[in-house]
Each structure stands twice: as structure tokens, then as C-alpha cells.
Amino acid sequence: MLEIKNLHATAGDKEILRGIDLTVNAGEVHAVMGPNGSGKSTLAQVLAGHPAYEVTAGTVTYEGEDLLAMDPEVRAQQGIFLAFQYPVEIPGVSNAYFLRAAYNEIRKARGEEEIDPMSFADLMDERMKLVEMDPAMLSRSVNTGFSGGEKKRNEILQMAVLEPKLAVLDETDSGLDIDALRIVANGVNSLKRPDNATIVVTHYQRLLNYIVPDFVHVLAGGRIVRSGGKELALELEEKGYDWLLEGAVA
Amino acid sequence: MIESYLKGFEQLASNGGSAAPDWARSLRLSAITRFEALGFPTTKNEDWHFTSVAPIAEREFDLLAPPAHRVTAAQLEPLTFGATDWHTLVFVNGRYDASLSSTKGLPDGVTLVPLTRAYEELPLLVEQYLGKVAAYEGQTFTALNTAFLDDGAVLHVGREVEVARPIHLLFVSDPSAGAGTSQPHNLIVLDRSAKATVIESYAGLGDGAYFTNVVTEVVVGDGATLTHLKLQRESAQAYHVGTVDVRQARDSHLVQFSFATGAALSRTNIYTELRGEGCGATLNGLYLGDGEQHIDHQTRIEHVEPNCYSREHYKGILDGSAHGVFNGKVFVHPAAQKTDGKQTNNTLLLSEKAQIDTKPQLEIFADDVKCTHGATVGRLDETSLFYMKSRGIDARTARELLTYAFAADVLETIEQVEVREALEAATLQRYTEH
Predict the structure, then answer these.
(1) Which residues of A touch B (CB under 8 A)?
(2) Residue A60: which of A188, A161, A199 has the closest Cα?
(3) Distance CA B301, CA B305 (A)
(4) Torsion sign over Cα A143, A147, A151, A157
(5) Which residue numbers in chain B have pLDDT < 50?
(6) What pLDDT sits at residue B18?
(7) How far apart, in whole angstroms, are the C-alpha atoms of residue A93 and residue A87?
(8) pLDDT for res A250
(9) Which of B382, B389, B396, B427 to mutate to test the interface with A (most CBs of A within 10 A)?
(10) Mean per-residue pLDDT over chain A, rounded
(11) Nearest residue, CB atoms, B393 vs list A48, A91, A102
């Protein structure tokens, strides 16, 4: 599904990603871990097409196509979803309007008809239950005045509605208490299917108790310095990152 | 060209204004004298630093003649919010038009009449307040307006009376019979614990340069609540100067919104004095400019007494070479302890040539107060654009939606539902259908 080869990316004149190689197949859950400043979030943002980062070398192939050549909206229409570490507040646009606009854009890209408001309301009812969200949140402006936990749940709600093929969760666990973490993780787990994949970017092992990865990668200094199974996350929890970092930073 | 106004004043004094009582005539006389002494302000005047009124000052405006053809109810339809049960006074080229107006269904204790009738029906009230709330001594345009005091709306809401339906004062200008000016003067008085919603609309019915110079004097009595909306949608070549001057008594509330999108040059003054304890004033506004438009707002909130609050949020979207001005003054007098004031001005610039001069002015003479102000000027937020795109929304739609949302954020503070929905729809259409 996704093949990243020798990916280098800069922000301004600072090189952050220094040669990432990663392959994700359908049905898999990958965890990308690493200390602060290792490039985890940059990798997530580059996959979504954030304009602040420039890819200077390498390739990313998604479903056989050149992902880096696509605009962010095309990537989303092709099934890529980034759950933001800091979801953006958009005063003046209601959550419901925003979700329906996004949903219809993605349907259009798939060659499907726009959904009528009634059917969309039914869909929302169903998906909101997944993340235990109060329906009143739908009429509020996108993320505006939401608590940290509400914003993260709202991200997962969007994911549940848009049904991406490849979801990238960027530190979705940061700032969540244990109840919110469980709700978010349950949402993600219930959306898992054999034909989609998830990349979970996280600093802590905690989230991986709930979203169990097939592979764990440790990012340091803009490179993957170790890959393994889910047991690697437990080892990191126990030993920290330092033992992997020696010699990793060029 | 103050001479043309002096000549016009002579004419009015000798015929048109003959229905007015003696005190009104002498008020007009002092006002024209004051106008002549003041002359038009220049940009050296601090209050007019960013706005040159030369386009108005250099033209000669006679009083607007009646339109070439009678204005019909159908022409007013786009301006009446689909409402059929509002209490409406319509003024055409500054003159009350009874055939287009309707005051049926007004509750007992409410008087809503044109000024000429108010002289007969509410003689004490108009004598008490006219020309007294909106001081003209230092204000050229208020002096000019007061000199031509002749028509306008007078609303009196008696003690504890609540007017359920909105009162719409609709001023339309049709310059088909030639350029000219109208100088409406309104008076709104709410007695103790009264409640009303008043919408003042200014709109053009056809192209042509005309000049609307309006003054609205407002008295909100003890515990009374006034919701006041001023909608400036004049024709593209028009000039508009509008002043709303409010006096608030103890425990009264003013909820004011100013929407300005029309005219080549407009200046809106919203002033309120919180003269009793426990008052609240909310002043919000939205200005939308394009082309060569110049849109200026000046607000002034005088906190005279303790324990009052004021909230102010003005937003603007400027495109083309439009020039916006926002000058928000908040004065906290020495006695006004525990004042709670917040002022915000945000402007979105859609083009390189659009510009805004924003000048918050906080002057605090009491020591135990909580006052903040902030202003932002900017372009569409790249992070928000990326967020929307990352959900599959194309770049153009994202820009349009964010532009609309910027305005909707303040439009949604309008409680009057018909007006809010109409302005939201018009704004959505303006920024999304290119």
C-alpha cells in the first residue's frame, strides 16, 4: 500500500528526515516511536502533504502512484487521513458542515453521488457513537472551544466518517486521560479492516496497550534506527530510548 | 462646499421646516452656525486621521428630490428579510412614506411615528432629547444633520413594555431625479425595563452619487434592553455617514451590531455612555469592502459608573483596493471601578492592495478594572487551509469556506434570526460563488 524509500525532508534550511525507509501493507498497524525531535511528526505531516516541509530526496509510492506529486486534498481523496496532533480550530464553520463537505469531496473522487443531508445525519449518529461524542458537538464550530480530549475524539470521528485506506495518527494520545485514550483507541480498532492500514505515531508505549501494532519502528535523528514486533515497544518502555540512540545521530 | 448647505438651510428655514416647533427651529439655527464654524474635518483631525471626507466636502449636495418614479413595495422586498409582521417605517430619499410603512400590531405603550408627527404626539419627549444625546458641538456631520432636522423616526417604548417583533426603520435612496443628500434624524427612547429590537437599514435603489448623513439618538432607561442593528448597504457610488449615540441608564443593556458593505465612502460612529451601574454594552460589527471602497468605523464606549461591562468585536474582510478603518475608544472614568471591558478587531485582507488602519484606544482612569484589547490583521491561515485540504476539500473551496467562516464568526452573534440568516446567506454567496 505504502512504500517510503530514502525519504529526506527539510523545514526551512533544517533537514529533519534523513533517509526513511518504510513499507506498510494493507491490514497492518505500524507504530512509529521516538524521542522528541526525532522527526515522527514531520513524517506524518509529509505524508499528508503539509506545505511547511520540502521533500529533498526519496520517493513515496502509495497504491502504485507517486504520493509526493499529489496535492494534500488529492491524497485525502485517495484515502490518506492524518489525525492531527493539534487539531485546528475553524470558528464559523460548523462541524457538521465541514464533515459533510469533506465526505462529499471524497465520494466525488470515488465517482459516487453526494449524500443527502438526511442520510448523512444517520451516518453521523452511528459514527458518533463510536467515539462516544455528544451530538451537540456537531452544530458547534470545528474544534472551536473543544477540550483537548474532544478535539482528539473529533479527529477520530472524522476518520470514522471518511473511512481512509491509510490513517496516520500523529500523537493522538498526547494530552488524553486514560478514559479518553480508551475511547479513541476503541474507535480506531473498530475501524480496522483487512484492506486498510494504520500508522500510529507516538512518544509513549501507553497507546499501544490499546492499539496493538504489528510492527514497531524507532525513529531517531530522522532515520529508522530499529524495527521490530510489538515487543520492541515494551522494551522501549522499560529501557527508554537512549540505548538505541548511540551512533544514530549523524 | 459648505455654502451649498447654508443656502439649503435658508430654503428649509423659509418653507420645508415650518411644521417644527420653535425650539426645533432654534436648535437647527445653532447647529447650522456650529457647522459653519467647524467646517468639514481634515485628516489633521485625530478622529478623521485615516479618512478623507474630501469626496463629500468637495461636492454640492442639495436635499434629494423625490425619485422620478414612486418606490414600490416590490422594490423593498430584498430589504425586508421576508418578514411581514414587523413594524416598519420606510423613508424614501429622507422623507417618510406612509404608503410603504406599517405599524399595525404595536403593543400599547409604544409610539412609532415620523418626526413631524412626534412633534404633536410626543412633544415633551422630543423636546427633552432631540439634539441633546448626540452632541453636535464638536461634530461636523452631526451639526450638519441637526441643522437639517426635519424627518426621521421616533420610537418611544413605555415602561415595562416589551415589543416582541422587530421594528424596522428602512431608509432607501433613489437618486434617479438627481444627486442629493438626505439627513434623517432618529430618536429611540426606551423607558424603564422596556425591551425592543430596532433595525436601521440604509440602502440604495439604483446607481448615482448621493449622500446619507444620519444621526440616531438613543436613550435606554433603567433596566431596559435595546437590540440595535445598523445595516449599511448603500449604492456603490454613495456616501454614508451615520452616527448612533446612546445613553444608558442603570442596569440597562445595549446589544448593537453594525454591518457595513455599501457606499464608496462610509463612516459609522457607534457611541455609548454607560451612565449607571450594572450596564452592559455589546458592540459588534462586520465590514466587507472591495474595489475602491473606504469603510470607517469609530466606536466609543464611556464607562462612567462602576460595575459595568462592555464587549466589542469587529471583523472585516477587504479585497481589491478597499481601505478599512477601525478606531475603537474605551474610556474608563475615575468612578468606574470594576469595569470589565474587552475589545477585539480582526481584519482579513484578501488582496495585496487592500488595507486596514486599526487603532484601539483604551484610556483608563480607574484602578480596579479589567480591560483588554487586541487587533489582528492577516491573510487566510495556512494551517487552517491545510487542515481542510487534508480532509479532501479542494484549495478553492477551502479558501472560500474559510473566508465565509471568518465573517460568520461574528454574524452568528446576531440574535435576530431573520437578519442573521439573511446576512449569512448574502455573505456566503459573496465569497463562494465566483
Answers:
(1) 48-51, 71-73, 75-77, 81-82, 84, 87-88, 90-93, 98, 101-102, 105-106, 109, 141, 158, 162
(2) A199
(3) 12
(4) negative
(5) 434
(6) 57
(7) 14
(8) 43
(9) B389
(10) 91
(11) A102
Q: In the predicted model, is pLDDT for residue A68 greater than 50?
A: yes
Structurally, how many domains does chain A consist of? Answer: 1
Angle between helix axes B22-38 and B2-14 (nearest 10 degrees) is: 170
| Domain assignment of residue A250, yes or no | no
Range of the domain at A196: 2-245
Which residue in A77, A81, A84 is closest to B387 by CB distance?
Answer: A84
Taking contacts as CB-CB distances below 8 angstroms, the residues of chain A near B391 are: 76, 81, 98, 102, 105, 158, 162
Look at residue A198 and tell me if it is in a domain.
yes
Q: What is the DSSP letter of A136?
A: G
Instruction: Judge contact between A71 and B391, C-beta under 8 A.
Output: no
Within-domain flag for A133: yes
In angstroms, the Cα distances linking A72 to A104, A241, B78, B180, B399 are 16, 32, 41, 54, 14
The ipTM assigned to this model is: 0.94
The CATH number of the domain holding residue A167 is: 3.40.50.300
Q: Does B407 touch chain A (CB under 8 A)?
A: yes
Mean pLDDT of A7-34: 94
Position B351 scores a pLDDT of 95
Q: Helix, strand, or coil here: B299?
A: strand
Q: State residue A247's pLDDT score.
A: 54
